[in-house]
Design goal:
34% helix; Dihydrodipicolinate Reductase, domain 2; binds nicotinamide-adenine-dinucleotide; 26% strand; alpha/beta; 2 domains; 6-stranded parallel beta sheet; Rossmann fold
Length: 370
């Protein structure tokens, strides 16, 4: 493969993150084919043209089908609201393109299963935007757990909180529409689920409660009903025997990008928070009772692939760098390499867990994942 032609659909928060990653992946990693930013699609021609010029794409279209049909496009980044993912991903895969689709797969399990079927039928690469698992610190935590550094893990707690919907006066947006899913569990809890899948493997059962602190929001058409939930609290049991919980909120004043993980094992503990994504805390009983205490470890070139960005320790990666690592993993899949990605095969496990959470909430009981 001499070069890779990229199509991008959507140019908002995640569209820009994908564009930055496609622009950075070759300079950062150096070992991938040349990247051609071929075609950007958005909701109308003017927006698509303006964003194509900003991000460096050659062609622009107000009709996303033009992007999918473009023979110069090898891989399509899908960064539109959740309700479009199935139609866009299925069309791209059917056209013989590889796909990098933002999380979650779809607003409901039936549509997510259709996306998986489309990926299987096409034989193309189909991965999802679960950037947090790409953090070199998370990869190192995974290695420590795999090596038994903290012994058998018995309790896992993950809290994900932001405050972008904490203001009751904040206006209605697409994230409040039922057409885009459940809110708290498929917008937020999917990220903790991606981390759990990566660090420990699948869930066995869940018990979920959801809440909606503000039932209406202002919109240009007047007050609109909030159709989804902003808060969820989930008890869980993992297949490896550990118990724990996931708690998420989009209305938690003061929390900006928190994904706080606590992992307790027989021989130690590990703490991590995405708001301080370049460090983690490690407690090892092997330090002995007079010295044992949490130590803070800063990310460094030894935590690969940090070294591809910066040769000096403690100089810090950021959110968009995780997206660049995710992009390198996607290209690895396209080149037939082993790569750490949440693909549609793994993503469906997350979607089934979300569906189990929804059923648990509706029926007021524990739900087994089988
Ligand atoms: P956004 O509103 O900022 O951007 C959505 C983009 O899609 C806009 O450019 C919009 O014009 C475009 N769009 C809407 N309808 C379209 C259509 N019919 N055809 C073409 N383009 C269309 O939204 P966002 O925050 O970027 O979220 C998009 C996706 O990214 C969602 O699935 C969300 O769950 C996911 N997301 C992932 C992360 C992460 O950390 N991985 C973070 C935020 C959002």
């Amino acid at each position: 493969m001499k070069s890779i032609g990229v199509g991008l659909i959507g140019s908002g928060f995640m569209g820009k993150a994908h564009a930055l990653a496609w622009n950075a992946v070759r300079p950062v990693f150096g070992d991938v084919p040349a990247i051609r930013l071929a075609h950007l699609g958005d909701a109308n021609d003017a927006l698509a043209r303006a964003k194509a010029d900003e991000f460096g794409f050659a062609k622009a279209s107000g009709d996303w089908r033009q992007v999918v049909a473009d023979p110069e496009v090898d891989v399509v980044s899908i960064t539109t609201p959740n309700k479009f993912h199935l139609e866009m991903a299925a069309a791209a895969l059917a056209a013989g393109k590889d796909v990098w689709c933002e999380k979650p797969m779809a607003p409901n399990l039936a549509d997510a299963e259709k996306m998986l079927a489309a990926a299987r039928q096409s034989g193309k690469v189909a991965v999802l935007g679960y950037n947090y698992v790409q953090n070199p610190v998370i990869r190192h935590i995974s290695k420590l757990i795999g090596e038994g550094a903290i012994g058998a893990v018995n309790h896992v707690r993950i809290e994900m909180d932001e405050d972008f919907m904490a203001d009751p006066e904040a206006p209605f947006q697409q994230r409040h529409e039922k057409a885009n899913g459940w809110g708290a569990i498929d917008d937020f809890a999917v990220h903790p689920l991606s981390l759990i899948l990566t660090l420990f493997g699948p869930l066995e059962r869940v018990m979920c409660d959801m809440a909606k602190p503000y039932s209406t929001r202002k919109s240009p058409e007047g007050e609109r009903e909030v159709e989804v939930f902003d808060i969820a609290t989930i008890l869980m049991r993992l297949k490896n025997g550990a118990s724990g919980f996931i708690a998420v909120s989009r209305t938690a004043w003061g929390r900006k990008g928190r994904i706080a993980i606590q992992i307790f094992g027989a021989k130690g503990s590990i703490l991590f928070d995405q708001e301080r994504l370049n460090e983690f805390q490690l407690y090892l009983t092997s330090d002995g009772p007079t010295e044992a205490g949490f130590r803070t470890v800063l990310s460094a070139p030894h935590h690969k692939p940090y070294d591809r960005f910066i040769p000096a320790p403690g100089h810090s990666l950021g959110f968009n760098d995780l997206k660049t690592i995710e992009c390198r993993q996607l290209i690895g899949r396209m080149l037939g390499e082993e790569a750490l990605s949440i693909d549609f095969e793994k993503g469906i496990l997350i979607e089934r867990a979300v569906d189990a959470m929804a059923r648990s909430f509706q029926e007021g009981r524990w739900v087994d994942l089988g």
